[in-house]
Design brief:
- The chain has 479 residues and is an alpha+beta fold.
- 42% of the residues lie in helices and 20% in strands.
- Strands 10, 11, 12, 14 and 16 form a 5-stranded antiparallel β-sheet that branches.
- The N terminus is likely disordered.
Length: 479
């Protein structure tokens, strides 16, 4: 892979000058075929992101990360901290999917799926262009003094940005709090729901700061995935790259006419590459880099430079693809290898983890059950000659619907159970319920010293588990 920092040690981040100050970027939009495809994908993803907390599956939002109750719902499946193995396998599966996709398709997530890119390129920047004008105007105005024109445009833009950030913050927080709660809090005053207002103020502030100011620095400085991807990718991963062999020796039309600084080949012929050094690919880049310097960590694979260069190639009657999706190996003249050890390893691990995950989900019991004798108690003999043991039950309904609990003792013979406070308690979905119960066994059926009891637990008329528990009884049944 190419050196990510060309011309070191002088080079710094494309968005910083040599003194470390921020260089504001004014990327020009390139409305080519990739931009159109990304626009569609982007708006579909925005629609999904906004809709998911509203869509209910089994009385719960499709995705609901209830941190307060430590419940995580994914499309009807609610996981609790006791599902730690399942949660761990799920997290590892997602991680391995990221490894596999990055090794195969490079930073496709950054350019096509990341909310940072989608909201910045298809929501915030278009609004900025609408209010403050094209890039040249914005740059000139930003560098000039504060005037009424500059003042109202900036204020109006920030107002719209703030409104979008508020709505985005609510959508984001809805994944953790649920819309039902949010709507209730929204109807209250800050004094009644201070936590809600504080949370919204902080989330909105961070989103506003990110999209109004921080922008590409999120990708180039903060995002850990940008660092990780250089380890996950290899020479065969899909990248956006400039075809040096075809583009060089680059030269502007003026230089071509002057015939200066061009490659003088052995045959004495003076030849130029297809790059006319117009700079369109640099002007359109949202992270401010020049793709012609080779693969760089700041490249988010957004394909804007591909669209920009394709447009130039069309105008000068050259084939498209001087900048294109390719791989390091292909650009150096080789053939991209799809079949390679790294992909086999990631693919095999992904397959194993997904199989384990599907197995765990499909065999997951609909109820979590824990039955113990109440600590510190022993048996009682009742007036009707029954040996009674006091039990503590800790149960969680893992399904998405409330259900009546049924507990049936099947051994020893004649055993009966009575739940304290309710004959057939209703277990609410996801809720942990603690209760106590008495189990009685006729004294003449209880072996000396006690016996192992068996209980069948049912919910929604479905047998969940048969639990065994040692009961205490008298050693001498004569009394
Ligand atoms: S847009 Fe294409 S032709 Fe223009 S500078 Fe970039 S690579 Fe060269
Ligand atoms: S170099 Fe091209 S693909 Fe990479 S971020 Fe810049 S415009 Fe996007």
């Amino acid at each position: 892979m190419a050196n990510p920092i060309p011309n070191a040690p002088e080079a710094v981040l494309s968005t910083l000058d040599l003194a470390g100050n921020r260089k504001w970027i004014y990327p020009t939009p390139s409305h080519g075929r990739f931009w159109r495809a990304r626009l569609i994908v982007g708006w579909v993803l925005i629609a999904i992101f906004v809709a998911l907390p509203w869509i209910e599956i089994g009385n719960r939002p499709a995705i609901f990360l209830d941190l307060a109750r430590r419940e995580f719902t994914f499309f009807g499946l609610t996981l609790h901290p006791t599902d730690s193995v399942l949660l761990m396998v799920f997290a590892l599966t997602v991680l391995m999917a990221v490894f596999f996709i990055t090794a195969l398709f490079g930073r496709i997530w950054c350019g096509w799926g990341c909310p940072q890119t989608i909201y910045l390129e298809f929501v915030y920047r278009p609004i900025e262009r609408m209010i403050e004008g094209k890039e040249v105007q914005r740059r000139r105005r930003d560098q000039g003094p504060w005037t009424f024109d500059k003042g109202w445009r900036k204020s109006f833009k920030w107002l719209i940005f703030a409104a979008i950030s508020v709505s985005l913050a609510h959508t984001f927080v809805a994944y953790f709090a649920g819309w039902e709660n949010l709507l209730e809090w929204m109807g209250q005053s800050p004094a009644e729901a201070p936590a809600y207002f504080a949370m919204m103020a902080v989330t909105t502030g961070l989103i506003f700061f990110d999209f109004a100011y921080f922008r590409e620095q999120m990708c180039t400085i903060t995002c850990p995935y940008a660092r990780l991807q250089s380890v996950l990718m290899d020479d065969d991963s899909l990248i956006v790259s400039y075809d040096r062999g075809r583009g060089e020796q680059r030269a502007t039309y003026r230089d071509r006419r002057k015939n200066t600084d061009v490659l003088d080949l052995d045959d004495g012929e003076v030849r130029f590459g297809d790059c006319i050094d117009c700079g369109a690919c640099v002007r359109t880049c949202p992270t401010g880099i020049d793709i012609r310097d080779g693969l760089q960590m700041e490249c988010v694979s957004c394909t804007a430079c591909v669209d920009a260069c394709d447009y130039i190639m069309d105008s000068i009657d050259k084939p498209r693809g001087l900048i294109r999706y390719t791989s390091e190996r292909a650009i150096s003249g080789g053939d991209t290898k799809v079949s390679r050890p790294r992909l086999y390893l990631y693919g095999a691990l992904l397959l194993i983890l997904s199989t384990v995950l599907v197995g765990l989900v499909s065999t997951r019991a609909p109820m979590e059950i824990d039955v113990q004798r109440v600590r510190g108690t022993t048996y009682n003999i009742t007036n009707d000659e029954q040996v009674a043991n006091r039990l503590s039950l800790r149960l969680r309904n893992r399904t998405s619907e409330a259900g009546a609990l049924e507990v049936t003792p099947t051994a020893p013979e004649g055993a009966r159970i009575r739940i304290v406070g309710a004959e057939q308690p209703i277990l609410q979905p996801g809720e942990l319920t603690r209760m106590e119960a008495w189990i009685t066994v006729p004294e003449d059926r209880m072996p000396p010293g006690g016996a192992v009891a068996e209980f069948e637990f049912r919910i929604h008329d479905q047998l969940v588990e048969t639990v065994q528990l040692r009961l205490l009884g008298p050693h001498d049944n004569a009394h």
